[in-house]
Structure prediction request, 368 residues.
Amino acid sequence: MARIAFYAPLKPPDHDVPSGDRRVARLFVEALRLAGNEVLVASRLRSFDGDGDPARQSRIAARADTIAYRLIDRWRRRPQTAPDLWFTYHLYYKAPDWLGPAVSQALRIPYVIAEASVAMKRAAGPWALGHCGVVEALRRADLVIGLNPADREGVQPFTRSRAWMELPPFLDTRLYRQVPRAPDGPANLVTVAMMRSGDKLASYRLLGAALARLLNLAWTLDVIGDGPARDEVEAALAPLGSRVRFLGEASGTEVAARLAGADLFVWPAINEAYGMALLEAQASGVAVVAGNSGGVGTIIADGETGLLTPPGEIDAFAAAMRQLIEDPARCASFGEAAQRKTLREHDLAAAAQRLAAMLSTLRSDRAA
Prediction:
């Protein structure tokens, strides 16, 4: 068993605001523990700067220096409590890791990163400091675990030889189930997403525009989620009238219950990394129509568990939804295949085994 210091610079796993990032952080903690490790949250420092304020970024980095010094001093004084490995989840130019590289180097322990991305256009400009922090962290990392294959091209040039390894996104499939669908009646469409400006709002708008072209078909849409752009989302879906039900923010258990009775999950996924909600839908035996951006194609097998469409194309998205609404037998077949694929490739237990193998090899290499 190893003692692992876990750190999520964007949002700690016990943060009070739900998000996909917090969800994946918690899943990593659970997987590491399931693999037999003791996991401690090393710090709750948020390095996130969404406004591109260099002065604020400098203040965060300076605060991180102080925290890193305290951690190093504490663990040197009490080596029996010191971690055997540092594990950072999710860093990018808006949320670099200012702690892991310094602490792991001082304590001479392996430094692992899971899910990182590099945007070279940020090498200059208001987030240049954060970009440099990400690049430096990648150069020091003993292992970089990629959940989204699309990140590899940007990340790998800054990693050590053989430092990149891929791990499919995962969840605890025991929480999801499939219930018999009604043989007739309107198709029950569902989507789960936060309501915020940017790509999420753009996806909602595309969804509304595409569904407006399918008003001659029988369907309803359940929307699970909330956020600061709620008014804009409601306006985007207003032309669909009473077919849409806004269910608001829901717990994980409530989301699983809603997905269990759905026929089709629909989400344009504009600039989506991979989409945990898409994975939840497939774990529930629900077919998916989604935009083929980022790592979405690693979750959805096009033509087998759902249909993928070119990102941002309204006509293609509407046509794909039409295909599955008009062919419920094919839609159900996709859902069954989706559930099998999720159990086989994206289950928490399988991820724990893969992580254990990755980390044991890393520790063996360091010991040698």
DSSP finds 13 helices and twelve strands in the chain. The longest strand covers residues 85-91. The CA atoms of residues 93 and 130 lie 5 Å apart.
